[in-house]
Design brief:
By secondary structure, chain A is α/β, with parallel strands linked by helices. Chain A has nine helices and five strands; from the N terminus they run βαβαβααβαβαααα. In chain A, 42% of the residues lie in helices and 10% in strands. The longest helix of chain A has 15 residues. Chain A is globular and about 55 Å long.
Chain lengths: 229, 229
């Protein structure tokens, strides 16, 4: 097996799947590994989708457990249980394991995974566009983190975020240009964890809007229609 | 209970205990919380010492689990198990859960713990002196991380590392000046996890050297002599 050069943080969603194909185009399929975090997400289907996408794209996938977010969110904390955060907005539909700065943790663990394997390129799907509420998705945050990782691990890690300034429409077009659309049939987006997707949550609506604006039928919906008919 | 202003990352060792008393002196006992990571360290005695030190100092202590380091070090990884890191130097006596950039993770989780509690000050015992091998203990690394956390969490977190440029002798003197010496009797340093400490590992030797140069008897040894006589 060829040595990996790039590691893609693969959530099983539309954006990270597009990033996977971006990495394959840039580094070659044999040089791309994928890493998925099992952090107690509300819907286990995300993990299954990540594995299915990796299998479809014929790249390695590693699932790395993180039990800390669930503990930070209020379970299993000793002593300070009463002090636990209550400020998260129920309107945002964030998973109950949402933790501020979560992407800083994901990327640092990804870098720690990459380091001993000699992998210098980290690829992740964060985007400033369409995600106004998440400061840990912004480029200045990620540039500062890249610097902290380079200094803290004495390495030359390069963090790539090819979707940073793209709209959902542009991301769909990029997926098309990279040949990533067939793999989209195995991705997961719905905040409610439903398959077929609920079509009503903000994530479903944003995804639908992107495909509609790009004039492309969502391969996931096409596949599910094929199954049900 | 008064709201905490500062969070001390407490490992149960000499340095973090000194930092705890530094924080108490600066912010007041009622405004200091402590956080300890249960990350699969080789010796559970570290956790017990952290709790004993916190109890002795009459401050809250929270233990936060992290199962990711053990997974990164080679256990429980799916698919990529064969690719696991073999480059760690057995000479360094690092725990088998050592992960490059580990302090980046500790401090980011500590910031995520602090954020919803309105805690703006993070205190940690990293030092450039005496720890030449650890790039994630250096000031430039931690400054970059502080910046990433501030941007990524949109907060004003201030990271304090009062021991950064102190020798072990100076740290012992600071502990004396802060009234932290009695609490030192409950700390743990030995790499071999022994109590009484083995006195032979590099951590024991470094600790002994610091106390000797400061002309102070190590309160831990004094306490243990008291128990055994």
């Amino acid at each position: 097996m060829a040595a990996a050069k790039a590691l893609v943080v693969l959530s099983g969603g539309q954006d990270s799947t597009t990033c996977l194909y971006w990495a394959i185009a840039r580094f070659g399929r044999d040089h791309v590994d994928t890493l998925t975090f099992d952090y107690g997400q509300r819907h286990r289907i995300e993990l299954e989708c990540a594995q299915q996408v990796a299998r479809y794209a014929r790249v390695f996938n590693t699932i790395l457990p993180i039990n800390t977010f669930a503990a930070l969110s209020g379970n299993a904390l000793t002593d300070a249980a009463v002090q636990v955060c209550t400020e998260l907005n129920p309107q945002t539909l964030l998973p109950n394991t949402f933790v501020p700065g979560r992407n800083l943790i994901f990327l640092t663990f990804a870098a720690a995974y990459a380091y001993p394997r000699g992998i210098d390129h980290l690829v992740a799907g964060m985007a400033q566009t369409d995600y106004s509420g998440y400061p840990d998705c912004r480029e200045d945050t990620l540039k500062a983190l890249e610097q902290a990782i380079r200094l803290g691990m004495e390495c030359k890690l390069e963090l790539h975020t090819p979707l940073m300034f793209k709209s959902k429409k542009e991301t769909v077009e990029l997926a098309r240009d990279l040949g990533a659309l067939p793999a989209m049939a195995y991705t997961h987006t719905c905040y409610n964890g439903r398959q077929p997707p609920c079509g009503e949550c903000s994530a479903c609506l944003l995804r639908a809007k992107g495909f509609a604006e790009a004039g492309i039928t969502d391969p996931l919906l096409e596949r599910l229609r094929g199954i049900s008919s």
